[in-house]
Amino acid sequence: MNLTSLDIVTLMFFVTVWVSYTQFARIRARSTYSLSYILRQLRIDWMTTLTRKEHQIADAALLGNVERTVTFFASSTVLVLAGVLTLLASADKVVVVLQSLPLTADTSTDKVQFKLAVLALIFVFAFFKFTWAIRQFGFVSVLLGAAPQYRSTEFTDAQREVFARQSAKVIDQAGHEYNNGLRAYYFALAFLTWFLHPVLFVVSTVIVVSVLYRREYRSRVLRALLATKGLEPGRIKQQESEQESEREAQ
């Protein structure tokens, strides 16, 4: 396999951008209102309300809907992997198709096989993220069954609050894993352009990061979700940030 210097640089750029954006989003969420921030608050509200309800049937149904969505993506990822592995056995035919397309860089069978192998690894990563999210949503089901009953006198208000926050944290972690799996799909779409041309690969990677950033920090749905708390997009107030840090430390 003879990867060009441009191919190697673009692949390193792709990996660096993916890893960097993941870390950036995690750190940025601590200081800026984002989908991660507001969803965490709403999950706390959900679990707090749950501990003061007599029945959790509707809550179990909502959780089941989310879990089915994640399961769908996990199953779809297996099918995608099967397709990619099938293409590996027909890499020579893929080369013929690519060479017939305009603006396609010079390619060869071994290059295509390498790119398909990397693409398969991306979907393997996504599969592990989705299945771990499914397991964590399963843990939440256990928590729903163990939630303090509405009429129970064995739990104080402080204990109910701790239970609600810790349960919300489990849901939050499951949501992050689901988000990481979806993010892998986005970057996989950018990766597909590498089969055509390395420069197009770089441009597509930048576009994907821009879309992810806009949806996380500048989207209309973020404004609507923040409005439920009387907030607007921007930096988190210092007092709220300190309170949140204290709650996470507990």
UniProtKB/TrEMBL annotation:
Domain of life, source organism: Bacteria
What keyword terms does UniProt attach to this protein?
Membrane, Transmembrane, Transmembrane helix
Q: Which residues cross the membrane?
A: 6-24, 116-134, 185-213
UniProt key word Transmembrane helix: yes
Q: Name one Pfam family in it.
A: DUF599
Per its record, how is this protein called by name?
DUF599 domain-containing protein
